[in-house]
Amino acid sequence: FKQRFEENQIKIENNLDYHHPITIIGDADRLRQLFSNLVENTLRYADAPGLLKIGQACTANRLVLYFEDSGPGVPQGALDHLFDRLYRVERSRSRAQGGSGLGLSSCKSIVNALGGEIRATNGNLGGLRIEVELPHTG
Hints:
Layout: H1 2-7, E1 10-15, H2 28-45, E2 50-58, E3 62-69, H3 103-113, E4 117-122, E5 128-135
Parallel strand pairs: 1-2
Antiparallel strand pairs: 2-3, 3-5, 4-5
């Protein structure tokens, strides 16, 4: 995705901790699909120039990954529906920009299958923040 982010003038701020490896039990292809969908969401909807922050928080048995973009945000009333199949926000994040309404729904299915949770909020950067919480084995 690096070249596409550069072309779209969106910088990536990587705050992942690579010094403490964490093991997630799951299908590698489905995890790749999950993270690709989340990154693709930023490419489709974040304004240029923009920013995507990726980071994590970890407890003894849960990993929370976050993907937060610089905007535009999503209306508060739409946040609870973002993971519904075929749902699209028609205002700032529309089909005209390429969304089908399936990407975040697929993300939810993948996360649920792994025993995790996914949620969306409006972040501090002015855009959408997606948090993925997954169980880990250490």
